[in-house]
């Protein structure tokens, strides 16, 4: 096994680097070594940023040792691996999570303390890794945490975008990599060539072809080690960056043409420069398709190279490799595998197809038509000519089968085809993903059912579809963000085991009836609210009352998520307060309405909603008539680390999408786990959450998914006045139009969407929303009852851990087993 030098020398050297997890001095040694050597600084000129960097590098050393052990162990064992392909990875900060997973938080806290720094302050020096927009990207982050924790052999693959999400009001791009990122390891030796454009020559009497010419660049690997919780296993997240094949053209430089000498370099690097800022919205830009292809081609070349080291025939690939596609963004990898097998490895077409369709599985995350990817055929053909040919063949074979099963049903063939007819034609990526995958799943029970009964009705037999309800990691979303509640759980259960077996928290459900426990639970909530209040005060200069109900709607701005319903409810409340007699005022529950989330830069209506929230906040928060009855907060630059402060402080989880539109939602899970009561529609994972916590512990509202279509139809084709649909909403609109929150004309386009078609049923659900809020207020008056329901919510959330989701994938889709690295 040992390949270079003297094994004993290697072994002794590696052991000398080992630091015991309780060894404060040993940890301090490694931190100081990075201060003096890596950073070339000393105690005298070390600021908090430097101390953070040295600490992070020291933790990274620990992670890399485990990463190395995991990789060599898995290389030796060669288990079947899952590769999780996601174009977004919303990781957030790493330091705190890493020391918790390594069980070294106390040691690092003491060591940095002794070196003169406060560990909490160092944590705040870290920039969020925000390679994602919303739930889809954060889901990938939770899943890789669970894969590592469950000891499942698996890697993540993504893109290393230099500039991540855009700040909403300022639209300042976030060049998050302009500081050194201690958590990534550049692997300049791991790189693959990627071709774009060019021409295709058929090879006569074969299904092979030669694709040549066009532009070539390189995809270079950056690895991010992902520690499991309480295990040695450390997964890998491999991110690809585009680089030129030749960085610098010396001939142009010598000829005096400086621009041309670096042109190819910056052209290539532009491919992975930006993260597309849309959530649930397809943009259709060539650069995005380039990103997708570079990422998929590099990942496949990497996966196949690893497989080829086993010296096995191609038809055994599915015994060693399963690729999970996080939405349709990586769908081109199906075609890329076909291309490599057919053109480069000379595998016959049918054999290649048999292999490919045993390797891929596809997760759908949305039914919204505007989010479904379909590439204009001319654009696609120009960029990836050989891939289009292969798609034609896949489609022809697929439609032949359909025609055999449903002779003469041309309409069905048109609906099912991977190519959408029209001018131009389009390549429908979801259809391609379904045809090329052995399993397709939705992300919550209702969503998976809707996929089969509506948008993909025709496309796959029953056993090809399944459901895997989303989950969130309890390590970040409880242990890390709410340490006091985590400690209470551990103390009451007498062990930490619930952190890897979340079902166990259900044992605490009877504690809802224990007055002492309720007191402790409520104190923690109040402390968390006070912590948030401090942040709001110092960052936004805003005072909020910790005794008020904190309602939280924290998610991307989108019409279907209906921040409007919440906002109009606030205006309704404001008008009510303004009219109330002193007697009536006493009965009004105090609210702090918290919004956080970004709008895509080009999403006009979503930005108008932000504008109205901010202007309502300005008026309401400064109106002496309101006093402390109502505060409205919009938190800019929403991020994972902001969420970590908000979620433990929430009393109410606002989840009010139009029924049938939110595939799952995941903030509903995080908020529930931290004791926020669900105020929500019967949509996405709300359905399963309400089922588990019990409907009497949640506030459900609005039309049901099954009725939405009829109401929507009637809004469009048998329109009634807004006054008839909802007199309360009509009054709210009048106040806006009258200029109560600044120039009313500004909001006309927003209000018009609701006056006219009201596609998302805001007016139809407004009455029901207000009624649900009234129930919330009534319950709040009885704090003991409220706390009971809060406890029953938190401890009924045991199913919504990403460990359960990932285990579901492993059992029902991936067929992979845990392969724990032995503890010495
Ligand atoms: C999102 N989909 C859904 O809108 C959320 O309901 C869900 O919780 C997350 O995925 C994670 O499953 C998308 O972002 C996309 F891309 F599909 F539109």
TrEMBL record:
Its cofactor is pyridoxal 5'-phosphate. It catalyses: [(1->4)-alpha-D-glucosyl](n) + phosphate = [(1->4)-alpha-D-glucosyl](n-1) + alpha-D-glucose 1-phosphate. GO terms for biological process: glycogen catabolic process. GO terms for cellular component: cytoplasm. The modification N6-(pyridoxal phosphate)lysine is found at residue 670. The keyword Transferase applies. One of its GO terms (molecular function) is glycogen phosphorylase activity. Its EC number is 2.4.1.1. Keywords: Allosteric enzyme, Carbohydrate metabolism, Glycosyltransferase, Pyridoxal phosphate, Transferase. Belongs to the glycogen phosphorylase family. This is Alpha-1,4 glucan phosphorylase. The lineage of its organism: Eukaryota, Fungi, Dikarya, Basidiomycota, Agaricomycotina.
